[in-house]
C-alpha cells in the first residue's frame, strides 16, 4: 500500500489502484466490497470496449491482436518507480506479442491469452496538490502505434439524490443505470461535476469524452475516454484508434473537491 498525504487530503494506492481519496474525512472513492463493482479504478488500454462479438480480434497495422474487454493493460502489474510525500509514479511495461493470461478465462471469456503487436511503456502518476488529486498517464511506444485510452474510476455516492452535471445538463443515477452495460456517453466533454453531499469536479486533458456507468445507487463510474466504443460494431473497433505521437503521449485527470 502506498499512502500520500497533504494537509487534510489522503490517498491510498494498492498495486497501482486508487482505493481511497479522502478529504477531511469525506471519502470520494468507491470502496471494494461495497455493492456495485469489485474494483476502485483501472485503465482501459490499448482498446476500450468489448471484443467477444469480433472473436476477440482487433485490427492493427501489424495484423490482428487478441484483446478481451478493455484491453490487456489490466493484466499487467505496476512497479513503483518513484515515491515522495505527495507523489507516486508507477509503470507497466510490455514487449510486443508477449502472450498474457486473460483473467476472464474461462468463466467470462473463451480467450485464454491476449497479446498486442507493439512494445509500450505505460506510466501512471498521482500527485496531491492544494486543489486536489492530479492523475497523469504517459505512454511510450512506437511512433504511430494505434491505441485507445480510458480511465475507469468508481466514486462513492453518499446521498440518494446524487447526480452528474455535464454540458449544462443534470443526469440522475437512475438514468445511468437504465442505459446498462453500454455506458452512457458524454461526448466532446472535458469537465464533469459529481453533485453529492460534497461536490467533486473531474476535469481532463487529452481524453475528450466521458462514459458513465453503474448498476447501483451507491456508486458511479465517471470514465474519461478517448473514444466511445459502442459507436461502432466490434469488428470495426479499430476505427476509434489514435496514433501515438508527440502530441498525445500524456493524458491528465484532475479530481477537484468543491467546498
UniProtKB/TrEMBL annotation:
Pfam families (UniProt xref): Aldose_epim
GO annotation (BP), single: carbohydrate metabolic process
CDD domains attached to this UniProt entry: Aldose_epim
Family annotation (Gene3D superfamilies): 2.70.98.10
Alphabetized GO MF terms: carbohydrate binding; isomerase activity
Keyword Transit peptide: no
Keywords of the record: Calcium
Swiss-Prot/TrEMBL cofactor(s): Ca(2+)
Superkingdom field: Bacteria
Subunit annotation: Monomer.
Name under which the protein is recorded: Aldose 1-epimerase
